[in-house]
Design brief:
The complex is a heterotrimer of chains A (78), B (247) and C (178). Chain A is an all-alpha fold. Chain A starts with a helix and ends with a helix. In chain B, helix 2 packs across helix 3, helix 4 runs parallel beside helix 6 and helix 5 runs antiparallel to helix 6. Chain B is an all-alpha fold. In chain B, 64% of the residues lie in helices and 0% in strands. Chain C has 178 residues and is mainly α. In chain C, 85% of the residues lie in helices and 0% in strands. Chain C has three helices and no strands. Classes of the chains: A mainly alpha (78), B mainly alpha (247), C mainly alpha (178). Chains in contact: A-B, A-C, B-C. At the B-C interface, helix 1, helix 2, helix 3, helix 4 and helix 5 of B face helix 1 and helix 2 of C.
Chain lengths: 78, 247, 178
């Protein structure tokens, strides 16, 4: 299997970028966990804050998606 | 990813290939493709969900009519809660986006179907439409005052220019994250299902692979609904910025 | 993400598109049909579905409001009926009390009259009896006196004392009285 160094770099970079998705998962878990902790303390206020929860999750997830995008670009577009 | 020895063939991306529906190789801008077919099916799904079920206009709703009314009430309340009363004139627009994404996501889960929302061209158009709407509405409603969105009066004065640059960058990152989130979630889910299905080529691993497909499929059902919700919710949030740029 | 195998990549490098999503040649086609779809859905929703659902929801809201008002009316009516019933009940109760008191008074009067009559009869009988007793007692005393006088006269005769009948009578009367 003779490959070229650029292809190797692409795959390595894509794999490294995938680590970013894992960190985004930590961020999303953080948001959801803190929301749950707060919601259990004050369940009556939880329903009104689900929108904020989803926005927070979306923003945390966005950065993971950027990492995923970088991986995709390395794999297919470069 | 595949080892040549086992003869495993993974083609997780083949499901996303756009093919002309009636033969031929060239895809002109008007050529009906498999994507077109499933876009049409999603229109039919919307018609079935929102028009056929409500044709009786019953005071006591049937099951289908309840679903249509629930979807209506859900999005209506979301728009009202997030953007306020003056955002309600965008309700049909937002509801269109929501229904299209929801139907497309769920239809994409049908085996052998084509997932339209897993295409960057589709999601980018959706997100850019929202982005352009926000800018146009923002400037039309607030004039130059729309730029106050980037000028955080709650921050210390020294920090404000720096934050303004950051805010502007974030603002322009919005359509990217908005579109790539939907596209990424749907595409990744479908590709993972295909990868798991690929492992079923090894007889010993087939049961595990099939279990994996089932699990991921269940997750995808959830993701389909959540991504539609998140896309709609973020549309509302961005519209709120256009209507009320003061933090 | 997964991709075509490395071995394949060499073999079919010519038609390898990588990600179909990044194949720019399909973009105009997809964008065109997407716009058609969105416009179709938008028109379907705004022309047919949304007015219909809004009308149905409004109608239902109206019906619910009407029904609630009706229910409120019925409730008021029921409350009124209950009040009327309670009033009638209270009236009936007082009536019952009045009637029973009257009946009791009547009975009491009858009873009193009967008792008085009985008392009068009893006292009349008692007086009569007392008179009879007194007569009997008087009769008895007379007999006693007569017997005593006779006996005294006999005793006096037996003892050979002549005594005047008058004296004996007087002596007996004095003893008997004592």
């Amino acid at each position: 299997m003779e490959g070229n160094i650029a292809e190797l770099g692409q795959y390595l970079g894509a794999g490294l970028a995938a680590i970013g998705s894992g960190f985004a998962a930590i961020g999303v878990g953080n948001v959801a966990g803190n929301f749950l902790a707060g919601a259990l303390r004050n369940p009556s206020a939880a329903a009104s804050q689900t929108a904020t929860l989803f926005i927070g999750i979306a923003f945390a997830e966005a950065l993971g998606i950027f990492a995923f995008l970088v991986a995709l670009l390395l794999m297919f577009a470069v | 990813m595949a080892s040549e020895d086992a003869g495993l063939v993974f083609k997780p991306m083949d499901q996303f290939i756009v093919k002309p529906l009636f033969g031929g190789d060239v895809i002109h801008w008007y050529t009906p493709t498999n994507g077109t077919l499933w876009l049409f099916v999603s229109v039919m799904a919307v018609v079935g969900l929102m028009v056929l079920t409500t044709s009786r206009r019953a005071i006591v709703p049937s099951r289908g009519q309840s679903v249509a009314e629930l979807a209506y009430g859900f999005v209506y309340k979301m728009v009202e809660d997030v953007t306020g009363k003056d955002g309600l004139k965008f309700f049909p627009y937002i509801f269109t986006l929501f229904l299209f994404i929801l139907c497309a996501n769920f239809l994409a889960l049908i085996p052998m179907s084509f997932s339209t929302t897993s295409h960057l061209a589709v999601t980018a158009v959706l997100a850019l439409a929202v982005f352009v709407t926000v800018i146009v509405v923002g400037f039309a409603k607030n004039g130059v005052g729309f730029l106050k969105l980037f000028w955080l009066t709650s921050a210390p004065p020294v920090m404000r220019p720096v934050l303004a640059v950051l805010e502007i960058m974030l603002f322009f990152a919005r359509p990217v994250s908005h579109s790539v989130r939907l596209f990424g979630a749907i595409m990744a889910g479908h590709a993972v299902v295909k990868v798991f299905a690929g492992f079923a080529q090894i007889t010993a691993a087939a049961p595990v692979a099939i279990l994996g497909v089932v699990a991921i499929y269940g997750l995808e059902v959830m993701v389909a609904a959540i991504q539609a919700y998140v896309f709609t919710m973020l549309t509302c949030v961005y519209l709120k910025d256009a209507l009320h740029p003061h933090h | 993400m997964a991709t075509e195998t490395l071995g394949d990549a060499a073999g079919k490098a010519a038609d390898a598109v990588g990600m179909p999503q990044l194949d720019i040649t399909t973009f105009p086609n997809q964008i065109f049909w997407l716009l058609v779809t969105l416009v179709a859905i938008y028109l379907i929703l705004t022309r047919i579905a949304l007015p219909r659902i809004a009308a149905t929801l409004g109608e239902r809201q109206g019906t619910i409001t009407n029904d609630l008002a009706k229910a409120e009316d019925l409730r008021a009516q029921a409350a009124q009926a209950e009040a009327t019933y309670n009033k009638a009940l209270a009236e009936a109760k007082t009536e019952v009390q009045r009637i029973s008191a009257a009946a009791r008074a009547d009975i009491q009067a009858d009873l009193d009259r009967a008792i008085a009559k009985a008392d009068a009869e009893i006292s009349a009988k008692a007086a009569e009896s007392e008179k009879a007793i007194a007569e009997i007692r008087a009769g008895a005393m007379d007999n006693v006196r007569a017997v005593a006088t006779e006996t005294a006269a006999e005793i006096a005769a037996a003892m050979g004392v002549s005594a005047d009948a008058k004296d004996i009578e007087a002596a007996v009367a004095a003893r008997v009285k004592g």
